[in-house]
Amino acid sequence: MKNHFRCKCPITSSLDILGDKWSLVVIKQMLFEGKKTFKDFTESQESIATNILSVRLKMLEKFGIVEKAKLPTNKKTNIYTLTDKGLSLTPVLIELVLWSKYNIQEFNPDLNLDHDLEKVEKNKKKACQTIVEKYKEFKRSILSQ
Q1: Which residues form the signal peptide (predicted)?
Q2: Which residue of 25, 55, 56, 118 is most buried, as measured by CB atoms within 10 A?
Q3: What is the mean pLDDT of residues 44-68?
């Protein structure tokens, strides 16, 4: 595999994969919004360009964060789902939401903050486990259609 990393720093290396404008957005859309097809992603409010989306999905797949499969009921449609490696980013996304609440909300008062965010803050570990379990159940259901 071609080396895509600038250096040996773990933070920099993580950012080499996830630090672009779109990778975490795609992962967030999958985890929290249930997006799974190319069309789902292109119709989202973030308006990711199709060429960029294609590159990001391939890159996330290459690094084992996302996997691609065919819908059992429609072999023409690719579905993208998070792997366990992708799901392990759940705590990172939760922390980004909380960081935004306390540091970005003053600049963007229209932030879409979940009404259960206080529960999440009180027990982040349980919240992450619940989110991951719900996603895995969702993934099983779409793969067995």
Answers
A1: none
A2: 56
A3: 95
